[in-house]
Amino acid sequence: MIDRRLVQNFDWGLIGITLAISLLGIMTLYSAVTAGKSIPNEAIYLKQIVWYCIGFGAMICSFLFNYKALDRWAIAIYCLIVFLLLLVPFLGKYAGGSKRWLMVGPVSFQPSEFAKLAVIIILARYYSRAASSKGLSFRDLFAPFLLSITPFILIVLQPDLGTAMMIFLIAASISLFVKIERKAFIYLMSGGAVTIPLVWFFLKDYQKQRILTFLNPGHDPLGAGYHIIQSKIAIGSGMISGKGFLKGTQSALSFLPEQHTDFIFSVFAEEWGFIGSLVLLLLLFMLVVWGLKITYGCRDTFGTVLSFGITAMLSWEVIVNIGMAMGLMPVVGVTLPFISYGGSSIVATMISIGILLNISMRRFLFE
Amino acid sequence: MTFLQTTMRKSIRTTDSEWFRLRLSVVMTLVTAAFVVLFLRLFYLQVLEGEEFRRLSENNCVRLLTIQPQRGFVFDRNGALLVDNRPSFNLSIIPKDAKPVESVIDILSRYLNVPAEELMAKVRNIKGTSSFRPVLLKQDIGRDALALIEAHKYELPGISVDVQPRRYYLHRQSAAHLIGYLSEINSSELKGGKYPEYKPGDFVGKFGIEREFEKYIKGKRGGRQVEVNAAGQVVRVLENINSEPGNNIYLTIDQRLQSKAEELLKDKAGAVVAMEPSSGQILAMASSPAFDPNEFVCGLTHDEWKDLISQPARPMGNKAVKGEYPPASTYKIVTAIAALEEKVIDVNTSFYCPGYIKHGNREFRCWKKGGHGSVNVVRALAESCDVFFYNVGQRLDIDKLAWYAKSCGLGAPTGIGLEQESEGLIPSAIWKKKRFGSPWSSGETLSAVIGQGYNLVTPVQMLVLTSAIANGGKRVKPYVMKRIETPGGQNILNGETEIVGNLPVSQSTLNIVKKGLWEVVNTDYGTARIARPGGGIEISGKTGTAQIIGRRGNETSYERKLPDHFKPHAWFVSYAPSSDPKIAISVIIEHGEHGSSAAGPIARELVKCYLNPEAVVDDNGPDTKVVSDAVNDEY
User: Fold this and answer.
1) Is B574 one of the annotated active-site residues of the chain?
2) pTM here?
3) At what angle do helices A264-297 and A343-361 cross, to 10 degrees?
4) What ipTM, to 2 d.p.?
């Protein structure tokens, strides 16, 4: 039985923004894999369309039930994801220097993409019980810390620094949003000041190199610094109106590394110029604002934290990915939601949108 | 009651929501700020700098050039330069800019005197990667070719000549095995994962010091992003990172002594190693014949390489650490220690030597046909009497002897830190059972006590043993790196003396052995009278003549005319001055026949050279620029 109010309150705006961004995403990917290539890799682009379809299906599934059920399922979902992450080192597929993918029949997927959502859901469950107007004490933060650090470490070991960093940023944003006691906050800050040098010690050489390159782009003009300058040339050369669809030259000549995943924004910006990029940026901004609007309208703590967490995830991904392509951030492997190639990323993002829709359409329902 | 609870919970929720809403406005501000930053950056890149980036993208004119670092210099212990870098002009082509590639290659092949196909093959090899990356055509093209190319620059689009430092070994073959060489990294090394930062065309240390200390001396590569015009010529440098020179390394060797050792080894096959007995610093390490490392830097052809590794005298092997030889009579030092410590004999025990001994139904001969008469242990060492030690062997268990040999550092690498160090071999009953499946026979012990049979040692192992006798019983680990310092002169690593164990000897045993070794050189009946340097310096040592084929019947090797490659190896291990040793030397001459005549004089000359440099006429020409004051400082 679907309540009539649910249909009335359906968030068409969010669906509209999502569809618009997805459409731009498919076009950009098409260009990235075909333009100027003697052997266009159309398989990538067709696969991505299939993933979009699956993603939309998953999105619909994600708003059919009442999101409050997620509160009950949170532990099960979290345990399942941690279990899958634990499987990765043993059964995972090795590609490009890391083990991130699990194979299910012919399909490979990345548990780490879903780990972000699992962490958001479990933290929403925890904070909906622990939150108080006083703020979280140091002891209150212990459980969320463990809950976030477990997938974080498993993902760092894959190694996938970008996704691990996302988990950290999401967990930190949610915790700050829920409010932390002043004393606990100071403890954490000083703790962080001690830990960061330790983390540095454990980073792989190429990861250190990337951070150093970011801090001083001249550091390695032949390696990571090369990616940044090529990405900047691609974006900058788009100028105001862009070179036109399929007319990008930087991407066509394969100057850009990882152009259909991490550097997809450069491909887009080169072809659509400042005007196109502005439209994309505005759409992404609207998406984030929409998410915050849903958080604002939500009446229960679980839904509030959940929708905030999802919005935080989307904003961090957008800001870090685009910032990286424009040379504002270190080169870390973070996907641009809806646009980068990658089935797991698309499906996870679509599920997130589904949950946002779910919370949005049930905002007027009271128990 | 229930109602009250519900109301309370609701009120908390409402305050929570209010609280969240307040925070949301903060979040909204932050998110907006972040997007404004992204917007401004976009505006900067596409609108303000757009034209510049468009230009860069249209010509596809950003090229990457590598600036190779200056590799660290190598000096000897006194600061004399051994390995330098010289400029080398390398010719590269960027296939995209060289239009048409064929005609450019054609012209180049004439200037360089290299077949066009060979050059073309290099360009084709690189296909698959970007055609904007420079392809190295020829390294070190020489000044004539350089002049031609520079003069015809405009007919040669896409060609670039860059100057890179190239390794230059000043003394060519001298200390070649110790210093080693470097050459271009090969594809299996690139794939192996041991050299993650290297690129094709990079040079990497392959042997000796160049290899062992690669990470210290290699330096850090720099790079340059340049903008080129349509012909591939550099118009502007966009970004420039200078390379950082590698650290300089000071070896423990004394180049003057090293050259002397090599001069003495000339036209012979063998090795000489010398070290300071107290510290373990290697003073000279020569292996003959040697190779010229400069040839490796220039790249050997396949045939040249095959020729080098197939020569019977093995020029590529460092005989000082890799060569395994029967220790022969030098091993009597170990046997004497074992016998004295096991109380099989004491200093007064004498055996009569009639020139042979009967053991079972076999006759074991002494090297001296008439025999030595009645000798004690000191005299037996001095005269190298085999029969005395056969008698000891009849009273000593092979496993006990093996334990003493191993405790003296034989049968295991010394840890000098050079690749390919051999272990040697000290046989025991268990070893033989494992290796051949048959039990040890007592006759084999008799071969073992005089260092024949299965025993194998390396010259550097014998050097460590000799040094230990000289320094009072301490086995020091030999080392070759004195210190490493940054180009700025700051010390970052010091070679340090490391005592790895003690000889299994009491002071009295040590004194007896030392007396024996002293008598070897300094008495009229000693076997190495020839090694006396004179000038008030006394040497102690032990000769050895390592049989390659067994003695037959009644004859000794003296009486037989053997073909060269069956002649025995000649050993002489020694230290000097006898009373306060400053240098220990181990010499082996392959097929040199007699330890005394072939190896002894080499040690003598080296001792003279090291302890009394003023007395030796420096005939090595300008190669050895040693300030004698500096040498004097060492002792």
Assistant:
1) no
2) 0.63
3) 20
4) 0.90
